[in-house]
Amino acid sequence: MSDHPRPTDIVMHRNSRKLEISFDDGKTFEYPCELLRVFSPSAEVRGHWGKGAKLEVDKQNVNIDDIRPVGQYAIKICFDDGHDSGLYDWRYLYDLGRKQAIYWTEYLEKLTAAGHERKGPSPL
């Protein structure tokens, strides 16, 4: 038995650029594609062994081209900007769903610190 919630349904809403995931504990989260993209768990974004993390910018219009299951523990998301590395496991997706407002605020602070201004309305 798993020690964390597992998805029961995954639905892509292409027009609104959101991924909706329902979990077996009854919670459902909507993830803006931009949030999923800038918080990709890939080494390209997070860095290798904690070094070289990349601040993703200008991903406001990114969408998802494909979602592929990886075993029974994760999905691989292929974005329309060509990014398709990194596995989104259930624990990571659940945490990202629960704390997306906190993570989004931290992301905006990093953008500001880097001298970049995000254009457009917030996806949250």
Q: Overview of this structure, please?
A:
The chain is built from 4 helices and 6 strands; from the N terminus they run βββααβββαα. Helix content is 27%, strand content 27%. With 124 residues, the chain is α+β, with helices and mostly antiparallel strands. It is globular, with a radius of gyration of 14 Å. The strands form 2 sheets. The protein has a 3-stranded antiparallel beta sheet with strand order 1-2-3. The chain has a 3-stranded antiparallel beta sheet with strand order 4-5-6.
Order of helices and strands: EEEHHEEEHH
Instruction: Walk across the major sheet and give the strand order.
Output: 1-2-3
Provide a count of the helices: 4
Q: Mean of the pLDDT scores?
A: 92
Quick recap:
This protein is 27% helix and 27% strand. The protein is an alpha+beta fold and 124 residues long.
Task: Quickly list its features.
single chain, about 120 residues, alpha+beta, 3-stranded antiparallel sheet, 4 helices, 6 strands
